[in-house]
Amino acid sequence: MTNPAIVANGLRKSYGDKVVLDGIDLSVPEGTIFSLLGPNGAGKTTAVKILSTLITADAGSGSLHVAGHDLTTEAQAARAAIGVTGQFSAVDGLITGEENMLLMADLHHLSKSEGKRVAAELLERFDLVEAAKKPASTYSGGMKRRLDIAMTLVGSPRIIFLDEPTTGLDPRSRHNMWGIIRELVTDGVTVFLTTQYLEEADELADRIAVLNDGRIAAEGTAEELKRIVPGGHVRLRFSDPAAYQNAVGSLSKATALDDDALSLQIPSDGSQRDLRAVLDQLDAAGIEADELTVHTPDLDDVFFALTDSTTATAGATVPAQPKETVR
Ligand SMILES: Nc1ncnc2c1ncn2[C@@H]1O[C@H](COP(=O)(O)OP(=O)(O)O)[C@@H](O)[C@H]1O
Ligand SMILES: [Mg+2]
C-alpha cells in the first residue's frame, strides 16, 4: 500500500467565533480524485488553503500530512509537491498567456530554455497555442481556467488542488475541464477537487466528502453515498401484458409505473441481498420480466438528504422516485 497523498485529522479553523471547519478527517490515496462537495460558504476554499499551506489550521487540529510531510513542521517540503489552482484565477490579464506561463517557470526556477520548453508543451496540451501571444484578458472563461491549470502544472506537482475549477463555465468548457482533470490522474497525479456540483463529483471523483456545517456529513464513493438515501428501486419491464398484470397483482410492493409501457417498480436499496429477495419473489410468483434495471438515487438526492437537517432526521421526506441517472 502506498501512503495517502493527503491526510487530515480533526482539521479545525475558526474566524473569530465563526467555526468554519469543525474537526474534519480526510484521507486521499495517491493517484485518485477526491472531491470535497459543499454549497457556497461551506468551507471548501478554507480547507484547500490550509492543505496547500496558504493559511494555517487552528492549534486544536490533529495531524495534517500532504505528500508525506507534516504541515506544521515541513510546510516547505509539502509546498514543493503541490500545485494549487485557486477559486479565483491567478492569471494576469495584462500579459499574454505565454508570458503568464514563463512567469510561472521563473517562479519555479526553471532555466530560460527549460521554461520555454515546458511553457510551449503545456500551451499545446491545453489548446492555447493560438491564443498564447494574446493578452490573457481577451480569453474566454474556459481558456482562462485552462491557462490557470497549465500554470499550476509548470512545477510538475504530484498533488493538485483545484478549487471549483468549473464554476461559471459553459457546459462545453466544463466537459473539456473534466477531460483535463481525468488526464491528470492517468499521469498519476492526485487531485483534490472542490465543487458545488453533485454531477461533477459523481462524474470525476473516486471518493466524495460532503461538507456541511463545518463537518463531513458523509464520505464514500458516489455509489456508496447514493445508497444512503432511500428512493432506490428495481424497475421491471414486460412485453407480454398478461405477465405484466400478473406481476402487478402478485408483487405486493410493486408500483405500476406505466400501463402502456408495461413497466413497474419495486423499492430496493440496490444491495445484493435486496436484489436477491426481489428475484426470489419473482421466481416464486413465476414471473419473468423482459428487462430488469436497478435505479439508485442520484447525488442530488443524497445531498439534500444530508444537508437539510429536517429531511436527514425524518428520512421519509426524501423523494420516493428520484431522477434517473442514465449512463
Ligand atoms: N479570512 C476570513 N475571515 C473571516 N471569515 C472567513 C475568511 N475566509 C472565509 N471566511 C468564512 O468562512 C466560511 C467558509 O468560506 P469558504 O471556505 O470560502 O467557503 P466555500 O469555499 O465552501 O464557499 C464563510 O462563511 C466565509 O465567510
Ligand atoms: Mg470557495
TrEMBL record:
<dbReference type="InterPro" id="IPR003593">
    <property type="entry name" value="AAA+_ATPase"/>
</dbReference>
<dbReference type="InterPro" id="IPR005894">
    <property type="entry name" value="DrrA"/>
</dbReference>
<keyword id="KW-1278">Translocase</keyword>
<dbReference type="InterPro" id="IPR027417">
    <property type="entry name" value="P-loop_NTPase"/>
</dbReference>
<protein>
    <submittedName>
        <fullName>ATP-binding cassette domain-containing protein</fullName>
    </submittedName>
</protein>
<keyword id="KW-0813">Transport</keyword>
<comment type="similarity">
    <text>Belongs to the ABC transporter superfamily. Drug exporter-1 (DrugE1) (TC 3.A.1.105) family.</text>
</comment>
<dbReference type="InterPro" id="IPR050763">
    <property type="entry name" value="ABC_transporter_ATP-binding"/>
</dbReference>
<dbReference type="InterPro" id="IPR003439">
    <property type="entry name" value="ABC_transporter-like_ATP-bd"/>
</dbReference>
<feature type="domain" description="ABC transporter">
    <location>
        <begin position="6"/>
        <end position="238"/>
    </location>
</feature>
<keyword id="KW-1003">Cell membrane</keyword>
<keyword id="KW-0472">Membrane</keyword>
<keyword id="KW-0067">ATP-binding</keyword>
<dbReference type="GO" id="GO:0005524">
    <property type="term" value="F:ATP binding"/>
</dbReference>
<keyword id="KW-0547">Nucleotide-binding</keyword>
<dbReference type="Pfam" id="PF00005">
    <property type="entry name" value="ABC_tran"/>
</dbReference>
<keyword id="KW-0046">Antibiotic resistance</keyword>
<dbReference type="InterPro" id="IPR017871">
    <property type="entry name" value="ABC_transporter-like_CS"/>
</dbReference>
